[in-house]
Write a structure and sequence with these properties.
mainly beta, single chain, five-stranded antiparallel sheet, Immunoglobulin-like
Length: 315
Amino acid sequence: MRRPCVAPCACAALAATLLLCPVPSPVRGEGARLGEPPTTIQTVPRVPGMRFSLDALQFSADQQGRARPPAARASGAALRVLDTEVSPGVRARFDRWYRGRSIAAINLYYRVAPRFVDLSGAPVDPKLVSRLVLEGSQGRRHVFTRGRPQWLQGNRVVPESEGTRSTPVLYVADRVDVAGSSVVHRAQQRFFPTQSRKLELRLLFFSVRFTVRDALLGFPIGSGIRVSFPGGQQQRERLGPGGELTLRSLPRGDYRVRAEAPGISSARPIALSRDQQVQLQVISWLDVAVVLLGLASIALALFFARRPARLVGRG
């Protein structure tokens, strides 16, 4: 028995799929020579003043984002979409065509400079931030260094059954690196450039109050402490009156601190995730002398306690 031929059916289905699905132009900002241009071009989203060119003739979109190309002087004139500065800090850039060339999908880009504050709202020097990483809902990552501004895509145009629609792009703070540690909770702080160009991030900075005391007698001791930051950097801080010191605006992370004092002290690890009070103890040379003196006194007491017993035994 002969098998039915399925090739014509498959070809017909493929042809129908290609005809029904719009094929956007992948060329950004340029139009190929595809015959006569459309009589009206609608920008999505509506971008008043969006610039176009038809060969050497330039024209712009009206307040509704509609542009009407001039009559082409020759068949196959090149239609181009030009980058346009919409307002200070906002640029419009062509993405792709829909429905032939009657709909121009436009991406808006916003110039964004991050601002950093601590949990109390006090400003943080951007130079302290070595890297800021933002993740966009369109799948792109942006890395800011030293607080320098960047252009962020604010929208994307997506095809739907009823046409095309512009949707805002959401950004989340993936990490903010300060002194070798990230000082934000991942994806908790969100930002839409279309709503505001003020990107303000609250950083996890904390304060620590150090006190350095003699381990045995409890009096203040030492001249300073040495702090090892999460990134490996070391810094010496001088103790104030009473052997006390308060360090503010320390980034979240794991530290090691050691008191600088005459005696024996060891480095202490600190996991900084909130404001803390830390007491460092030092075994001073006075403590060592007191302990040795105490041991010597005990030894002499035992020696003399046994000696009368021996004398009584001899008598």
